[in-house]
Amino acid sequence: MSARDWIEKDFYAELGVPPDAPGEDIKKAYRKLARELHPDANPGDAKAEARFKSVSEAYGVLSDTDKRKQYDEARRLFGSGGFRPGGGGFGGGSGSGGFDFGDLFGGASSSAQAGGSGGIGDILGGLFGRRGGQAAGASRAQRGKDVETEVRIDFTEAVRGATVSLRLSSPATCGTCGGNGARPGTAPRTCTTCAGAGVVSRSQGAFAFSEPCRDCRGSGRIVDDPCGECGGDGVSTRTRSLTVRIPAGVDDGQRIRLAGQGEPGRNGAPAGDLFVRVHVAPHELFGRNGDDITVTIPCTFPELVLGTTLTVPTLEGKVSVRVPAGTTSGRTLRVRGKGVARKDGTFGDLLVTLQVAVPSTVDEQARAALEAYAAATADFDPRPALTALLGRDEP
Questions:
Q1: β-strand pairing of 147-153 with 274-280
Q2: Is 299 annotated as a binding residue?
Q3: What CATH number does the domain located at 287-393 have?
Q4: CXXCXGXG motif repeats located where (predicted)?
């Protein structure tokens, strides 16, 4: 990206967020726009595709803490009129609108003394591929950006693991030119203006500084006959299909990393990574607590008082659970090995919570039986602690 791009493009406006927006707001805005503008949602709409690329470019800068800091600093310094990247020169003399020479050469003076880095030299270094004011050439290798996508699976797939197919539209190495940007049968040539360095030196009175080469836009190469697919960028938006293995026991919101499946690298550098964020749909019956699966089973009062054997569902089928006599409502029984698979090959448990189901109405026969039971157990106090407390309060 050239200096003019950094100064003139308003990435915050592209995403519709203020300059002081936190990272989470930037991510939310990007996801909303990406869904609306995605080529799959707008087939054949060139305007939407161009807007999708612009939004992705803006997010690529603002989602990276270092790049965002460099972008904000470049706009603050260069966009204020104190420095004109297109025509050179400094405005405002030594007044309030001028440029501080100490800042300009901070990387060569104060940083050399203090062993640190600072000033505009570092900003330009971060933007245009050099550090400490020394031109290293914009044609150096650069790792591709990481990409994130989302996938939704059901509860059973999260517990057992699953294989899902993804269809992604994202920047990828141009398949026509192989990434060099030139039409097949031709090749880029070295820029004669900068001799392939990507930067040129300019003089301003007694001072000299470097800036990206205008002829090659900092790439160090010139493509005379651009590739018809990517327009000379070497990268094009392509739709691709991937098969992703979701491991057993994945949690809701967990990210799975696929190395080398992100955006392609530049000049032979490795590609970025693809991160797949997993969303797990809730189950109508089962819940989850870490590696344990939870389920609530309604019971009748006699079943808990007298004891019984219940048939309880699991993800694999069903099991029999013995309920001891005198079991209280709300008690949880543990069934070993019927939970979530762990990385070490073991399994969590199934936690069965028993809950008394109370009928909303009873007939005369049932009422008579309940009244007889109440009379037979009149000496039983279900609230001894409360009774003792109320007894102490009596005069």
A1: parallel
A2: no
A3: 2.60.260.20
A4: 174-181, 191-198, 213-220, 227-234
